[in-house]
Amino acid sequence: MTADPIACLQHTAFYRFTPPQDVEAVVSALSALAADLTGSILVAPEGINGMLAGTAAALDAFEAGLGAWPGYAGTVFKRTACTTVPFRRLKIRRKAEIVPLGIDGVDVTQGTGINVSPAEWRELIDQPDVVLLDNRNSFEFRLGRFRNAIDPGVRHFRDFPAYVRAHVAEWKATNKRVAMYCTGGIRCEKTSAWMREFDLPVYQLDGGILNYFRAMPDAGRDWDGECFVFDNRIALDTHLNETSTTLEDVYEHEPDGEWRLSRARRLMDDPG
User: Fold this and answer.
1) Crossing angle of helices 160-173 and 186-195, rounded to 10°
2) pLDDT digits (tens, 9 = 90+) for 63-93
3) Of the listed 82, 182, 188, 227, which one is catalytic?
4) CA–CA separation, 247 vs 265, rounded Å?
5) In the chain, what is the straight-line distance between the N-terminal and C-terminal CA atoms, in Å?
6) Maximum Cα–Cα distance across the chain
7) Complete DSSP assignment for the chain
8) Cα 269 to Cα 39: distance, rounded to the nearest angstrom
């Protein structure tokens, strides 16, 4: 009996703040390394950020190959199953940043916030002196969130610093600690590296929401709803299973929902 090709697919998400010596050379090398996969990888002077899909064997080969590169050992790959084909083809692109915070000179390699394991996170976010920030877009927050989390009300990641600047004095005056989370961890790493200048205790969920769901079988104790993912699966539940949520469900109440929905449909039909 022939295996279902979709059932054999897996998805991997990863990033690494390792500045490449030659961005174009890295783009070329990644194109060869990921030739049997589909998805998207961004390459910038600060590092790489990618989401790929393929068979377990093809992903194993890619992850082993990338992990063997100088500076990339220990890269964390977050695997999830697929019932929908996540991507149509492979895109590897050069960008100014792998995650656009919109602030020049942020160097993650010089230090970030305090990484907190999923088990420690559960205890941390119950503390009364902790401000729990969702470091994602508002449409992602509405679809699912940690209980008691604050939605900063941003439409794009680059809007997040304005929210922090508007509240940091209040947090410091009341001796608050800030805990942040995002889907896979990359936005929090970039933000917490910048926030070090405020001399404020900042914590980030190690590996993001996806790692929390993987590590905590009872994640539903702390999480309401689903987790949006930026591929054709749309959303995952706390057991990392694809849900029946549609793009219409995600963008229905967004001020620019029609534009986002149209753009998402185009990307699903032709991700180039």
Assistant:
1) 50
2) 999 999 999 999 999 999 999 999 999 999 9
3) 182
4) 8
5) 35
6) 66
7) -PPPTTTTEEEEEEEE----S-HHHHHHHHHHHTTT-EEEEEEETTEEEEEEEEEHHHHHHHHHHHHTSTT-TT---EEEE-SS---SSEEEEE-S-SS--S-TT--GGG--SEEE-HHHHHHHTTSTTEEEEE-S-HHHHHHEEETT-B----SSGGGHHHHHHHHHHHHHHTT-EEEEE-SSSHHHHHHHHHHGGG---EEEETTHHHHHHHH-TTGGGTEEE-EE-SSTT-EE-TTS-B-S--HHHHHTT-TTHHHHHHHHHHHHH---
8) 13
Contact present, 75 and 67 (Cβ < 8 Å):
yes
Q: Which one-letter amino acid corresponds to residue 19?
A: P
* pLDDT of amino acid 7: 53
Residue 63 CB: number of other CB atoms within 10 A? 19
Q: Which two tokens stand for residue 125?
A: 């976010």
249 is written with which tokens?
């469900």
Enumerate residue ranges in the chain where pLDDT < 70.
1-8, 256-257, 259, 263-272
Q: Is 8 a catalytic residue?
A: no
pTM of the predicted model, to two decimals? 0.91
Q: Between helices 56-67 and 23-33, what is the axis angle to 10°? A: 150
| CB of 227 closer than 8 Å to CB of 235 | yes
Q: Which domains does the chain have, with CATH numbers?
A: 9-94 (3.30.70.100), 108-269 (3.40.250.10)
pLDDT at 272: 44
Q: What is the DSSP string of 132-162?
A: EEE-S-HHHHHHEEETT-B----SSGGGHHH
State the pLDDT at residue 69: 96
Tokens encoding 132: 């729990």
Short-list 135, 143, 118, CA closest to 228:
143
